[in-house]
Amino acid sequence: MTLAATQPASVKRRAQALIIDDNVELAENLADILLGVDGFELDVHLAGSGQAARSFSEKLGDELDVALVDLRLPDANGLRLLTDLRRHATSAEFLVVTGDLSIESAVAAVGARVFAYVLKPFRPQELQGTLRNALEQVALRRSAERLRRELEQSEQRHREVVEVIPAFVLVLDQDHRITLWNPRLEATTGFSKQEMLGKSGADLVGDGGDRRLDLKDGGHRLVRWQCTELRNRDGMRVTYALGIDVTEEREMLRRTLQVERLATAGTLATGLAHEIRNPLNSANLQLQVLKRRIEKGQTEQELLIPVIGLIHDEIERLTHLVSEFLAFARPHRLAIERIALNDLIRGVIELVGPEASAVSVRIETNLDASVGMLDVEPNRIRQVLMNLVRNALEAMAGGGTLKIRTLPADTEGFVHIEVEDTGPGFPEDAPLFDAFYTTKPGGTGLGLAITHRIVSEHGGLIRAVPRSPGALFSIALPQHSKARV
Ligand SMILES: Nc1ncnc2c1ncn2[C@@H]1O[C@H](COP(=O)(O)OP(=O)(O)OP(=O)(O)O)[C@@H](O)[C@H]1O
Ligand SMILES: [Mg+2]
Asked: Which in 38, 109, 142, 157 has the greatest CB count within 10 A?
């Protein structure tokens, strides 16, 4: 017989209860009490015999939440019956209801792990309270079981992901021994899980980054690892390492760089050949002039010397070009010294003073006294300033003002030098720092390329800013050497 709950079901949890008693009156009485348990909507089933109880429990299976069992049934021993019922009702709690207060039955009930031992006569509220506790207990156990199953499923899912993921997955225990070696690692290295589990994996992944992964049949791959350290459920440190094969990527990068280097070398060589051809051509022409004059017997000094002078100038130009080119192309190890920047600049100004006066250029200096000492190779920085000042003077062939300023170290430790002129300036998109870019008939176009190279070698930066009119070259140099040598 089954009785349905009469209370509103809105906030109540549904549960299945079974009363096993051969005394129908008492069973119905119990059922009434059960229907009044707070917070639960109970379906109460009545079984008058051990046999009926077994078939109910088979039918309900693990759905059964609570059973009230009379220990004295006509066809069964109540405690033995419990063992049978538990086989199907794995989450249920059992309450023994009896009027027989014997030590033996109490001990037997405890042995059968019953939730409570209820002695007749009992007060309905007391029984309802005990039942409620039993039902809460079952609900808790069921949710714990559900969580355990979900955890198991999620662990299973994670295991499957690790199995199929197209990346290397490695797990190390706190002693850096390998506890997981995924199939991708097996396939790539040729080392099986059995061979690797328990071995030290510290060298394999390090702290992450690119590392060699040796293969069983010789050779290696380059793997980029990312490591994360976590604590597992037992509080032990576990390292999870995820790796991707970057062998091809690295090779591609190497080839690209090689191609780029070749292209740069090609551009430079083309530029150099072009620059060499002009002076060679004119020297050649002058040689032919010289030859013709000698053949015609025109050997007077005043006829020959000017031609020889022109040939000499062209050869000088070539020599200058070659040494400039070498200065640009040859890697240079800086010989850093600590110098007073303002003094070095004053020296340069003194040197170019006559050249400036010759083209009516006035030099204005604004050298900040707090600039102080700088770690540089003095000759190279002098060369930088000479190049900038010469360019400025060349730009102001008709006169003007050359301003040279220094600014003390900024918050990042960079000292600034500015060279500004009042010449015609340059187009915004002019590739001033490219080797061989020149707008001057006799120029090599290497001056600013060399300047840029030197400033970079010192760990500094150079900028060209068009002014209207004029041009401003601004250099930032680290006060303390960051030279890339
Ligand atoms: N102060 C300046 N004002 C205007 N244009 C400039 C200035 N400085 C450089 N340039 C432009 O940049 C070009 C490249 O300068 P760079 O010093 O590299 O070579 P160059 O002066 O032409 O030749 P070289 O330095 O061998 O005499 C110049 O030809 C010029 O067009
Ligand atoms: Mg120049």
From this structure: 109
Residues 368 and 419 in one domain: yes
Domain contains 132: yes
The burial of 344, by beta-carbon neighbours within 10 Å (0-12 exposed, 13-18 middle, 19 or more buried), is given as: middle
State whether 85 and 200 are in the same domain: no
Q: How far apart are CA 309 and CA 153, in angstroms?
A: 93
Ligand index nearest the alpha carbon of residue 450: 1
Q: 225 vs 70, which has greater pLDDT?
A: 225
Mean pLDDT score of the chain? 88
CB 196 within 8 A of CB 180: no
The residue nearest atom 31 of ligand 1, judged by CA position, is 439
Separation of alpha carbons 212 and 246, rounded Å: 10
> H-type helices in 42-77, by residue range?
50-60
Domain that holds residue 44: 2-145
Name the closest-CA residue to atom 9, ligand 1.
391
Beta-carbon contacts of 167 under 8 Å, excluding residues fewer than 6 positions away, are 184, 242, 243, 244
Mean pLDDT value across residues 76-104:
81
Q: How many angstroms separate the alpha carbon of residue 375 from the centre of ligand 2?
A: 25
What number of other Cβ atoms are within 10 A of residue 168's Cβ?
Answer: 25
Pairing mode, strands 361-367 and 400-407 = parallel
Q: Residue 5: which pLDDT band, with cuts at 50, 70 and 90?
A: low
